[in-house]
Backbone:
């Protein structure tokens, strides 16, 4: 097994097999710049580039976003990953030099992470059959649980990129209409356990991305919490889908894990019946075995409590299918665009990816170990999601995405 000269705990999300990318700053150097991470160490890639340790100078690692690096395409991503792997494992690596280490290594305790990507557009899908079925039963009844189109195409909607925030950002409870003449601070604020994927190189307007080429366009993935106000959603969503119920905040984890790091964890997705149309058909494994977990901590609790365990492999529609479908009209994706998979619910009641499902629309509150109960999120509650792939003796993980609910702003109309 490949090992680095930097010690990494076997349960760390960030061994040498991972090498994610993020944007960070330090007190000593407040300019945001691009780094990778191994164990508890962040590595300043802008200095490695300055020192010409990538074979040629790229320039983009001193940027405050990953976009220029992402737009360079998969060959460049692979070349850099190979160089980094060598630099962190070879016996005669220049990174073994202490003077060099003091310039490029920073403890992750001492860094501030920033939103890693300038996100132009954000699209959210609805790719979990279990989630779509559960929500359908609650909102429309058992007979109409899955809409007639659901098994034929990956349903999605165009979301809001401006309110995508990084893990740790507080989320203010939104206000909105929930019934005729009823304008309130949302009473059923929820999370959605999702994965996000970023577009690397885009496509030209008018030129769809074929399903065979779709993976080449995906730069990497993060955890994603698509915060949702269920009462606002129930009143507003027909006929055009969610609008204000989901546009106030979407939180992502700070380290973008590359598709090359995730490659060993590809698995077959669920059998698709009816068979999708040819433009959505690909003859290869295109699911990912990513363990997912959600914890909740109220202000009165000493420690977070796990309230859901799911896995990305349950998703019915794959990322490749989402991307092929998204662009089949000729719609152009641009570098840095973000797609969400939709809530990833598993088949069992303890694997549902939202409170809406876990509490069955509030009918079955979650009992917490300190005697409290929750139907939906209260002010001061913190939701944290984690995710990792389990290898043989190592993990490739995403760290966490966390956010705390703050009270709604004062209603200024009264
Ligand atoms: Ca969603």
Residues:
């Amino acid at each position: 097994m490949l090992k680095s000269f930097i010690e990494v705990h076997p349960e760390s999300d960030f061994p040498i097999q991972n090498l994610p990318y993020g944007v960070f700053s330090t007190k000593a150097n407040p300019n945001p710049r691009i780094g990778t991470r191994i164990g508890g160490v962040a590595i300043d890639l802008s200095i490695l580039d300055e020192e010409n340790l990538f074979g040629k100078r790229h320039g983009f690692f001193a940027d405050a976003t990953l976009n220029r690096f992402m737009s360079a395409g998969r060959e460049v991503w692979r070349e850099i990953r190979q160089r980094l792997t060598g630099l962190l494992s070879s016996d005669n690596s220049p990174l073994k030099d202490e003077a060099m280490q003091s310039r490029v290594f920073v403890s992750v305790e001492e860094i501030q992470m920033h939103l890693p990507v300038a996100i132009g557009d954000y699209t959210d899908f609805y790719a979990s059959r279990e989630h779509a079925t559960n929500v359908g039963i609650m909102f429309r009844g058992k007979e109409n649980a899955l809409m007639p189109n659901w098994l034929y195409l990956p349903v999605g909607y165009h979301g809001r990129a401006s309110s995508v925030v990084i893990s740790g950002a507080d989320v203010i409870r939104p206000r909105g209409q929930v019934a005729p003449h009823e304008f309130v601070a949302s009473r059923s604020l929820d999370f959605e356990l999702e994965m996000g994927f970023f577009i690397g190189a885009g496509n030209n307007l008018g030129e769809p991305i074929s399903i065979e080429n779709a993976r080449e366009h995906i730069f990497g993935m993060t955890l994603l919490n698509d915060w949702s106000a269920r009462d606002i959603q129930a009143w507003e969503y027909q006929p055009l889908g969610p609008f204000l119920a989901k546009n106030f905040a979407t939180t992502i984890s700070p380290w973008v894990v590359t598709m090359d790091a995730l490659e060993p964890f590809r698995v077959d997705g669920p059998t698709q019946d009816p068979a999708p149309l040819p433009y959505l058909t690909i003859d290869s494994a295109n699911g990912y075995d990513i363990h997912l977990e959600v914890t909740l901590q109220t202000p009165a609790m000493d420690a977070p409590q796990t309230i859901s365990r799911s896995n990305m492999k349950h998703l019915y529609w794959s990322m490749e299918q989402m991307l092929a479908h998204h662009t089949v009209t000729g719609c152009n994706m641009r570098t840095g665009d973000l797609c969400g998979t939709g809530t990833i619910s598993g088949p069992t009641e303890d694997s549902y990816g939202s409170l809406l499902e876990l509490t069955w629309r509030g009918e079955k509150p979650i009992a917490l170990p300190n005697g409290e109960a929750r139907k939906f999120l209260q002010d001061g509650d913190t939701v944290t999601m984690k995710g990792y792939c389990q290898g043989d003796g190592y993990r490739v993980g995403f760290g966490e995405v966390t956010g705390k609910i703050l009270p709604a702003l004062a209603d200024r109309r009264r």
